[in-house]
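This protein record is not my work; I was only asked to verify it. The record follows directly below this note.
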Amino acid sequence: MTQRRARLVAYGICLFTAFLVWNGIFGLLVSRGEKQYLLDQARHELHLGPEASLPDRMRMTVRGGVIEATRWAVVVFVLGAGAVWLAGRRGGGDTHDGPVDRSGLLDD
């Protein structure tokens, strides 16, 4: 595998990981919003609060979830892509497949 192809695969893995993070965080936040709606509705039934509105609660939950999940996915992708970029710059000129001896002991 060439270095260019290896870097592209590594960037793809970063992108896929960011996608997984986005889905996980979004799902977590939407489930929290659902639980909050149920809590608000239970409080209303006990005459301890106003009536809960599912469309309003979910609208706020989805909007906030998209923003927060996107923030975290961008952080994950930028950090991963930055690591790939730095690793590519550091070892970019080395195309030797065998062991590398930088001490000079194997030079005869």
Remarks:
- The CA atoms of residues 2 and 95 lie 9 Å apart.
- Residues 1-90 form one domain.
- The chain has one domain: 1-90.
- The two ends are 31 Å apart (CA to CA).
